[in-house]
Design brief:
The complex is a heterodimer of chains A (302) and B (345).
Chain A (H helix, E strand, L loop, with lengths): L1 H28 L8 H19 L2 H26 L3 H24 L23 H5 L3 H19 L1 H11 L1 H6 L4 H28 L10 H11 L4 H24 L5 H19 L17
Helix pairs in contact in A: 1-6, 1-9, 1-10, 1-11, 2-3, 2-4, 2-9, 2-10, 3-4, 3-9, 6-7, 6-11, 10-11, 10-12, 11-12
Chain B lengths: L2 H28 L4 H14 L1 H25 L8 H19 L6 H30 L3 H21 L24 E2 L2 E2 L1 H18 L1 H11 L1 H6 L4 H28 L8 E2 L2 E2 H11 L7 H22 L5 H22 L3
Helix pairs in contact in B: 1-13, 2-3, 2-12, 3-7, 3-10, 3-11, 3-12, 4-5, 4-6, 4-10, 4-11, 5-6, 5-10, 7-8, 11-12, 11-13
Classes of the chains: A mainly alpha (302), B mainly alpha (345).
Chain lengths: 302, 345
């Protein structure tokens, strides 16, 4: 039981990364911006967030810095797309390349080479449910886990229970129609993409500050791309992004565990599992996936 | 090509490269390095010594293959981010077949063509997975090819550490050496694989410009609805472009194994701090997916990579600086191209 509880607890931690990134992709997607830059944003915010936390001695400053650099990447994406109508996928890929390069570049320039790995300041952890299994696995965590739960609820409420949220969803379906009823399409796209990328930035900072305690090159390990798969699986619905985040996190945690348990099957095949699962899930759920109708397309009034 | 068009191209690339260099050099200056030295090192290392030039060609060859791997599916507007995985898979399967056949003692005249076919087939098969997933399940190739990259990465690790193939004295994931009959030589430091790169350039050019298949690919990319009206099978075209792109990336991987390393080394498809697949995407975007311009673009990108390696060696400027330069060049190029496209022809 303790073992299951510990697996579940680890799953929640990884789900925090997956869910925050896919929520970020979901928000932008609802206004028609298909943001595939997640992997690059994760890396650059991991690097910047870690260094901010390290030098300030405050984990909170680290997350704010991660969110800020994420927001900056979002701003570049939406500005270049809206102003010059450059294809969103091309921009996303360019941002992945820039983010990958900048993360290591900034780290090497600022931190240099050190004999011992610099460690991030530790985060407070809720510990009041220790006696209760399952509940403790879900709730005995750091503030970012709570932030992830809160964002899922807030975004669900926003998109499905508020007028502004309804309007924002309308942009994703038909920017022309939203424009006609007086919604400022361009402004919403800016806000959604910037806020979304800031969330991805928080997830990026979470990797070094909580998950590993220190920064490593390429530490996102493809999760930024897998989160795109989650957003698609979730049909751009926040609550389903949470579900997808948990499923992918569970697969990742299980693949690590099974690798330790099995002698006969080479461990590399377990490490491939999460990536195979992404493809399989998309094959299985393809029929039930709905895309916002205008996603990926540029919009200009005329 | 009209004079105006050449002038336009010159303006696009001149201003983009200029702006990207300006940003890079401004950062280098802000960090307190000598800008003049950095610039000269970045652009001239390839031409200052025979070693620099050979290194440039060694990077250009695999880069040509991964650039085509992105370019051909991109002609029909699909993103093959999986050149890296296709390269890894091609190189790995080539190694497995080469080491397995080694005891037979086949001569090079049989072994080398056979392994080249294996590399082509392995890359094609691996890319076909993504092409098939798009054609039959409508799964975005951006997702599937990236997932396949990671799968290929662990496959390399599996083979390079497996009891059957690993080098028993190496600590890193490296296989035993291929037999001499399975490796290729050098012309005064230039790898023989350059012949295959040239053949690939000619092949792609003729395929696109002179064959029915190339015409179909161009037609689908230009206007899908019209192409389908004329009876072109879109799903088949998708799979064909992925097969072609993947085969070339796979060949690139096989050649790295057979010509450069002589064995499978984890990380063999990485250069100047990033994998060839990523650099291939940048190179392809730079030439707006025009296959004829790929060789020269790949060469120029390799000049920058070799320059960036030298910057790290001689001035301690991290090699990742080159990502910034290349990323910015391609960002500026796509922006300006889009401006010209909308501003009338």
């Amino acid at each position: 039981m303790a073992f299951v509880n510990s697996l579940l607890s680890q799953t929640v931690v990884y789900a925090t990364v997956y869910t925050l990134v896919s929520l970020g992709i979901v928000i932008a997607g609802r206004t028609g911006i298909f943001n595939v830059s997640g992997e690059g944003v994760l890396l650059v915010s991991a690097s910047v967030g870690f260094m901010a936390a390290f030098f300030s001695g405050s984990w909170l400053v680290g997350f704010l810095a991660g969110a800020a650099i994420g927001a900056l990447f979002g701003l570049i994406l939406v500005f270049v797309h809206e102003t010059f109508k450059v294809n969103q996928f091309i921009l996303g890929i360019i941002l992945v390349i820039l983010g990958t390069g900048l993360s290591d570049l900034l780290y090497k320039l600022v931190m240099g080479v050190r004999l011992t790995a610099p460690m991030a300041p530790s985060m407070p952890v809720v510990d009041i449910f220790a006696a209760v299994p399952i509940i403790s696995a879900i709730l005995n965590h750091d503030p970012i886990v709570y932030f992830m739960y809160l964002m899922t609820i807030v975004l669900w409420w926003f998109f499905y229970r508020t007028k502004i949220g309804l309007e924002t969803r309308a942009i994703g379906e038909s920017p022309q129609a939203a424009d006609v009823v007086g919604v400022n399409v361009r402004r919403r796209r800016y806000i959604a993409t910037i806020v979304g990328s800031a969330l991805i930035g928080v997830a990026g900072a979470y990797l070094p500050i909580y998950l590993t305690g220190t920064y490593n090159p390429n530490m996102s390990g493809g999760r930024g791309f897998m989160a795109v798969g989650i957003a698609i699986f979730a049909s751009w619905k926040p609550h389903r992004a949470l579900l997808g985040g948990f499923v992918f996190a569970a697969v990742e945690v299980l693949s690590f565990q099974l690798q330790l348990l099995s002698d006969s099957i080479p461990f590399q095949f377990f490490l491939m599992m999460p990536f195979v699962v992404v493809i399989v899930i998309m094959m299985v759920f393809r029929k039930r996936i709905e895309f916002p109708a205008s996603i990926g397309k540029s919009y200009s009034r005329e | 090509m009209s004079g105006r068009k050449i002038l336009r191209g010159f303006m696009i690339y001149g201003s983009s490269v200029g702006a990207a260099f300006a940003v890079t050099l401004a950062i280098i200056a802000a960090l307190g390095f000598n800008v003049g030295d950095a610039f000269v090192t970045l652009v001239s290392t390839s031409f200052k010594s025979a070693f620099g030039f050979r290194e440039t060609i060694k990077k250009t060859i695999p880069l040509i293959f991964t650039t085509y791997a992105f370019t051909i599916p991109f002609m029909i507007k699909f993103f093959n981010i999986g050149a890296w995985g296709q390269m890894l898979f091609g190189g790995t399967v080539t190694t497995v077949v080469g080491l397995t056949l080694a005891p037979l003692g086949l001569p090079g005249i049989i072994m080398i063509p056979l392994l080249l076919m294996v590399a082509l087939a392995a890359g094609a098969a691996f890319a076909l997975v993504a092409g098939y997933l798009k054609a039959s399940h409508d799964i975005n190739p951006i997702i599937s090819t990236i997932m396949l990259n990671y799968i290929a990465f662990y496959f390399v690790n599996f083979i390079a550490t497996s009891r059957a193939f690993k080098d028993p004295v190496e600590g890193h994931p490296i296989t035993r050496a291929l037999p001499d009959s399975a490796t290729m030589g050098f012309f005064g430091g230039i790898p023989h694989s350059i012949i295959l790169a040239v053949l690939a350039i000619v092949f792609v050019y003729l395929l696109i410009k002179r064959t029915r298949l190339g015409y179909e690919i161009t037609a689908v990319g230009y206007n899908l609805t019209a192409a389908q009206t004329y009876g072109i099978n879109f799903k088949r075209t998708i799979m064909v472009t992925f097969i072609l792109g993947g085969a070339l990336a796979g060949l690139g991987g096989g050649l790295e194994v057979m010509n450069i390393h002589g064995k499978l080394i984890e990380g063999f498809a990485i250069t100047s701090g990033a994998q060839y697949g990523l650099f291939g995407i940048v190179t392809s975007l730079l030439v707006a997916g025009n296959p004829a311009a790929v060789p020269i673009a790949a060469f120029l990108m390799s000049v920058l990579l070799v320059g960036a390696d030298a910057l790290q060696r001689t001035m301690q400027i991290p090699v990742e600086m080159v990502f910034l330069t290349q990323g910015l060049i391609v960002l500026f190029v796509v922006v300006i191209q889009e401006r010209f496209r909308q501003g009338g022809k």
